[in-house]
Design brief:
The structure is a single chain. With 161 residues, the protein is an alpha+beta fold. The protein has a single domain (17-159), classed as Transposase IS200-like (Alpha-Beta Plaits, 2-Layer Sandwich), CATH 3.30.70. It has four helices and five strands; from the N terminus they run βαββαβααβ. It has helices at 38-54, 82-99, 121-129, 131-134, and strands at 21-27, 57-65, 68-75, 111-114, 147-148. A five-stranded antiparallel beta sheet has the order 4-1-3-2-5, sandwiched between helices. The chain is globular, with a radius of gyration of 16 Å.
């Protein structure tokens, strides 16, 4: 019998530690529309905020689309562990889905991009904010409810797209 091994994530976990900024996209398995109510979003938001806090991270932005979420998170100090924060978030929310009778889960891995020092974090944040408009599920990012930040107040004029 041929044994298959799950492919390891492309980058080592040590690269996700410290005062860095990384963009993550986490998809629901089979692209099932999970985030269609404020109630589920609020549960997932709290689990995300708890995981970020435990791992010394902050969120430039988090935005939940129906079948995936975008996270732009940063390490607050040299002890920050962005990898651990995201893995912990996926584990806690996956367990919640299972315990509450949902027939879906997260995909095994996630997409990520560690931002270089010269990359524009504000530009990345604006791009994520505009995702619901590009997908045709909101006419204005300001009225899209399934988003948040531990760093920004989205009413600031710097977020005009």
């Amino acid at each position: 019998m041929l044994q298959t091994h799950e492919k390891k994530h492309r980058l080592g976990e040590e690269l996700y530690r410290g005062e860095i900024v990384c963009s993550f996209t986490i998809c629901v398995r089979n692209r099932v529309a999970l985030f269609v109510s404020n109630e589920i979003f609020k549960i997932f938001e709290q689990k995300l905020l708890d995981s970020l806090s435990r791992n010394n991270c902050g969120a430039q932005i988090y935005l939940f689309m129906p079948d995936h979420c975008h996270l732009l998170i940063e390490g607050r100090n040299e002890d920050a562990d962005l990898w651990r924060a995201v893995v912990e978030f996926k584990q806690k929310t996956g367990f919640w889905l299972s315990r509450n009778g949902f027939k879906t889960s997260w995909q095994k891995d996630f997409f990520d991009h560690i931002l270089r020092r010269d990359e524009d974090v504000l530009m990345q944040t604006r791009y994520i904010l505009n995702n619901p408009c590009r997908q045709g599920i909101a006419d204005d990012w300001r009225r899209y409810p399934l988003k948040g930040s531990t760093i920004y107040d989205f009413s600031e004029s710097v977020f005009e797209l």
